[in-house]
Amino acid sequence: MTASFRRRREHDTHDRGDPVTPATPRTQTGTADDTAGIAALLERGRTLAAPLLRSAVARLAPPMDTVAAYHFGWIDAQGRPADGDGGKAVRPALALLSAEAAGAAPETGVPGAVAVELVHNFSLLHDDLMDGDEQRRHRDTVWKVHGPAQAVLVGDALFALAGEVLLELDTAEAARATRRLTLATRRLIDGQAQDISYEHREKVTVAECLEMEGNKTGALLACASSVGAVLGGADDATADALESYGYHLGLAFQAVDDLLGIWGDPAVTGKRTWSDLRQRKKSLPVVAALAGGGPAAGRLGELLAADATKDQAEFEDFSEAEFAARAELIEEAGGREWTSEEARRQHATALAALDGVTGMPDGIRDQFAALADFVVVREG
User: Fold this and answer.
1) N or C: which end of the chain has fewer CB within 10 A?
2) Residues facing residue 75 across a β-bridge
């Protein structure tokens, strides 16, 4: 066990039965007003971004336009209008809020919100196919309904549209925003490649896992948190501070996601029980447990090494009890507790990064803090 790992575990007084509560949430007081405020922020992002998002998707050639509409929840598998779950809309909310942080109107951030949302959904389409996930947002995934080829093509098309939406503004600010989005997208792809490669490695360090998750999740949330400010004319120092907020928020989000990937309620997450264990993901709880040392870590390492020799068909035949036993070893070795602490630490680091934004109104800062609490304190 490394010294830093040991110190975090010794100072963690969190009840590991409650997986993801930030240490000092600033705005999450549980009142109806707090909940309404978050809902209003998310709804504003969703509502302002929707017309441009729909018009961008409508440019796609058939049947890609229909497949994309199904993915976004606008139609069902038979092509009938639907009011599906299009996701939490955190990224659009952040993009609009970042415009206000730079003193611009929230509408200034709409093209950035749409561009980031297009890239995010490009990654979801490809991730679902690569991971073999059959459900997203409590519906069959695109590759399951329309086939793998359409999932790949529509994902590629959404990525192309993202750049189109920004560059159509034809401003110096749009060019700066596009550069940042392109870099974030490349890092996102790097993270996905790392994630896949780690599934086939016997050992992955905590540092490697954090790097992968920073790329896969942190990079795009960082871009979402700064793109509106860039479009609003913010200088690089302001944009970089907002990116730092989003990056660490992404790491907190992913730590929570990793906990839910093992211990989440399928009725809430929309995924199978023990979903990350079924995919042999080297997520933070697993990697932290193995790094902790001790009998439970040793036994877990032996099981995972044996798992790596099996093909996926053999692995799919595992009983619920076998996955539950692995989850119990991860918890006993400290992986669950450490990941909960990491979520809280990254949450705090994200909020501290806002100090680098000069002149931001207190009300806007409070909304950034409220969104951070919302992202970290969740069940699905």
Assistant:
1) N
2) 81
pLDDT in tens, 102-145: 999 999 999 999 999 999 999 999 999 998 889 888 899 999 99
Place of tokens 């699905």: 380
Range of the structural domain that residue 172 is part of = 3-376
Q: Look at residues 252, 250, 225 and name the one whose alpha carbon lies nearest to residue 360.
A: 225
Tell me if the bond preceding 63 is cis, omega within 30° of 0: yes
- pLDDT over 90 for what percent of the chain? 73
For helices 295-308 and 284-292, the axis angle rounded to 10 degrees is 130
**Contact assessment for residue 263 and residue 324, using Cβ atoms and an 8 Å cutoff:** no
285 with 335: CB under 8 angstroms? yes
Q: Of 292, 369, 298, 281, which is closest to residue 336 (Cα–Cα)? A: 292
Tokens of 263: 């211990």
User: Whole-angstrom Cα distance, residue 190 to residue 290?
Assistant: 24
CATH number of the domain within which 348 lies: 1.10.600.10
pLDDT value of residue 78: 95
Q: What is the pLDDT of residue 380?
A: 66
Based on the structure, what is the number of domains in the chain? 1
Q: Which of 66-75, 225-234, 287-296, 316-325 is the least confident region? A: 316-325
pTM value?
0.89
Q: Report the candidate in 79, 47, 84 with the shortest Cα–Cα distance to residue 63.
A: 79
Q: What is the 3-state secondary structure (H, E, C) of 16-67?
A: CCCCCCCCCCCCCCCCHHHHHHHHHHHHHHHHHHHHHHHHHHCCCCCCHHHH
Higher pLDDT, 30 or 320: 320
Q: What span, in angstroms and rounded, lies between the C-alpha atoms of 123 and 71? A: 12
For residues 327-355, average pLDDT: 97
Residue 261 exposure: Cα atoms within 13 Å on the Cβ side? 21
Helices 110-131/172-199 angle, 10° precision:
20
CA–CA dist 191, 212 (Å, integer): 5
C-alpha 324 chain-centroid distance: 25
Q: Which residue has the tokens 């959404």?
A: 158
Contact between 251 and 212 (Cβ < 8 Å): no
